[in-house]
Amino acid sequence: MGEAISLQEVIKIIRKRLLLIISLVVISVGISIGISFYLLTPIYQAQTQILVNQQSSLSDAYSWQSIETDLRLINTYNVIITNTAILTPVIEELKLDVTPEELSKQISVSNESDSKVVNISVLDPDPSRAVEISNTISEVFKERVSELMRVDNISILSEAKLSDNPIPVRPNKILNIFIAAVFGLMLGVSIVILLEILDTTIKSEKDIEEHYGLPVIGIVGLIVEKKEKKISLKSRSVRRSEND
Question: Is residue 232 a part of any domain in this protein?
């Protein structure tokens, strides 16, 4: 086989070893299902929203300076929320068996651009505990921020609630299965093409021309004896045995 493989040759190779490719896809999907459903711990998310409402006079309520101040204040709040000053009281109140550093890894704080709403998201294997942590963080932050920054401009916009049938955010089982199927397909195609490239046996006259650079001037087909000839030879051997 030459160094370059045409698209038609690839299609032929795939058709010839289609069973191997399908087997690898099935194996990859099976492994993904086993890991996603039985090995990986499901992680649930709870989210609380707080509102940063800076008190200002009506004359400058919508001024650019007021908006800039609010945004800078929110950026500061985002850092304070995951600080030990907030997380330590949360751990003590809920009696969590984690350190503030470990708990901070479960928390993400975000806000939309030019928005005074701050989202506090908590990830945890226990959906009810995720709700408790998220709500407790918002409550503790609201109480402690007045002491830390001497302001009173935080209000809880919406609390996290536990649904009847909580759905984990991780692992994404459907996505994992899809990725496994694509991986198995790519692996299968790569293997069959590699096997074909490494196979140096002569299969056709085209292979002779490519390997040895010799033109093929003729092809000898299979010689098949006729049935009548076989029968005549068999009858002769029987007669000879009778004469003997």
Answer: no
